From TrEMBL:
List of residues binding L-glutamine: 47, 241, 243, 270, 273, 311, 314
Assembly and binders: Composed of two chains; the small (or glutamine) chain promotes the hydrolysis of glutamine to ammonia, which is used by the large (or ammonia) chain to synthesize carbamoyl phosphate. Tetramer of heterodimers (alpha,beta)4.
Function: Small subunit of the glutamine-dependent carbamoyl phosphate synthetase (CPSase). CPSase catalyzes the formation of carbamoyl phosphate from the ammonia moiety of glutamine, carbonate, and phosphate donated by ATP, constituting the first step of 2 biosynthetic pathways, one leading to arginine and/or urea and the other to pyrimidine nucleotides. The small subunit (glutamine amidotransferase) binds and cleaves glutamine to supply the large subunit with the substrate ammonia.
This enzyme's EC code(s): 6.3.5.5
Catalytic activity field: hydrogencarbonate + L-glutamine + 2 ATP + H2O = carbamoyl phosphate + L-glutamate + 2 ADP + phosphate + 2 H(+); L-glutamine + H2O = L-glutamate + NH4(+)
Pathway terms, separated by semicolons: Pyrimidine metabolism; UMP biosynthesis via de novo pathway; (S)-dihydroorotate from bicarbonate: step 1/3; Amino-acid biosynthesis; L-arginine biosynthesis; carbamoyl phosphate from bicarbonate: step 1/1
InterPro entries named in the record: Anth_synth/Amidotransfase, CarbamoylP_synth_ssu, CarbamoylP_synth_ssu_N, CarbP_synth_ssu_N_sf, Class_I_gatase-like, CPSase_GATase1, GATASE
Carbamoyl-phosphate synthase small subunit N-terminal domain: residues covered: 3-133
Region (CPSase): 1-182
Source organism of the structure: Buchnera aphidicola (Thelaxes californica)
Gene that encodes it: carA
Transcription in keyword set: no
Lineage summary: Bacteria, Pseudomonadati, Pseudomonadota, Gammaproteobacteria, Enterobacterales
Name under which the protein is recorded: Carbamoyl phosphate synthase small chain
Classification via SUPFAM superfamilies: Carbamoyl phosphate synthetase, small subunit N-terminal domain, Class I glutamine amidotransferase-like
HAMAP family noted in UniProt: CPSase_S_chain
Amino acid sequence: MHKKATLVLENGLVFHGKSIGINGSIIGELVFNTAMTGYQEILSDPSYLNQIITFTFPQIGNTGINTEDEESYRIHASGIIIHTLTKKSSNYRSQHSLKTYLIRNNIVGISNIDTRQITRILRKLGSQKGCIFTEETESYYSAYQKIKSFSGLEHKNLTTLVSIKKDYQFSPKKNNDYNKNYTQHLNIAVYDFGIKNNILNILHQKKCISHVFPPESTAEKIINTYKKNKKKLHGIILSNGPGDPRPCINILYEIKKLLSLHIPILGICFGHQLLALANGAVIKKMKSGHHGANHPVKNVITNKVIITSQNHNFTIDINTLPKNIIITHISLFDTTIQGIELVNAPAIGFQGHPESAPGPQDAVYFFDLFIHKIHHLKKQYNDNYN
């Protein structure tokens, strides 16, 4: 029998439903995600730290949970709001149910909620702070007091809460060819601000050997790591991550030093925003953010449109772009900046998630653009691959 659960929003609205996770109480910032599939990848995306995800698709849990689709080692979202929890999962890859997954990860969730109404509220009023609690754990008054005391996502550096503490060389779980000596491999330094596993998997598929570094890593630490191992550093990835990039002052300082080395850089989502900040642009909070796997993005140079996976609450202020940043892509939902390229350095950024997981793979070519920049420089300087 399901326990009762309650959702309270900062605007005072109250919703009653059923508990689908552990007994308890959580607070977070509500966002809505419009993806029709991939709830496991979404829940395990570190970018959702301190957020409560409202799934607009009415039926969640129908394909169960499996270990292969994890984008990180645990659920990072604070909680989950859905309309209907599927009673039985039916997929040959399923290992256990969504409810079991939520309980194992100590997540509070609520079902039997009109998620369309929640979505309309978020679209009209913007992101809302909220509290989900199961019966006998809170009262409406105590939940509302917790909401008032929750400071939200702005002006917080959350990267250290979801990233690694020690650098390592990535080795995929399912790939027997990793130890092959590629005749033409690329050495990539990856900043982990809350990275998704599929970014590293795609880099591996494209013959890149990734060395992953914590967000506190200095430019000198990265360079010296490759010098010590007598390896050439070919490129740098600035990964996705949670929260507000603006407080990451130390990280911005290191990015500026890396840019001066003229090594190709690809910024993804949070990393895209950091790249813009490091070059003098301004980042601002969005009304309700972009969260889903069906967002159209236009290449303003070629006029081609791709469908993308998105997950962000902050964006580059288009009115603050310095002259050395070129806009390459925009959102067709609200014309916010989706892609940038630097004039004075071999660096590009993409606001969406080119690794998808979940979502369409239209934007995977951003990895190819990044690798093309590496090969172009190597050819220009007649460099070898070691």
